[in-house]
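pinned: reference chain
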Amino acid sequence: MPKLMLYHAAPSRSSVVHWMLEEIGEPYDLNVLKLSAGDQRKADYLAINPQGKVPALRHGDVVITEVAAICAYLADAFPQAKLAVPIGDPRRGKYLQWLFFAPSCIEPAILQAYLKLEIPPSSAAWGSTAQTFDALDQALSKGPWLLGNDFSAADVAIGAGMNFAIRLFKMVPTRPNFDRYLDACAARPAFQRAEKIAAG
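pinned: its structure tokens
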């Protein structure tokens, strides 16, 4: 089987993929980039991701960028980890909705709240910060995970982003359902392994 290689820098969005790799349980290598040294702008990395961003994942001859796309790819490529809803299962639509809700709604809503940006909901693809967090809160009220009892790659993408925004950098206020959810994420052995590796 081709080896997995994560081009990684912590803390950054690549920490989401690092957790995902621990969840799938397959061997992988970390190629750690020092963003402060400009490693992401060097020619050898720009050949991997011309945008000069992390993460990027190499799996044999396949290179994938963008967090949600990488999580979707890994969940489908390693079905034994049971992190994706299979094609044909009616729940797959909801799974994909939440997986891509992370970068398309939650990340912009966090930045809008943190930077106190006034953006009319009709102009923002995510609606508004309140709408975004209310939708997530409602989904988590049925918990423990976004798909009820089934943990998935969508929880990795959303859980990591919310942990970053609420617990690491205090960018947005928390809510009881968010605290319960983040506690459950932090209790997962794969999350803890990724954190321990990141801490060196």
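why pinned: DSSP finds eight helices and four strands in the chain. The mean pLDDT is 94.
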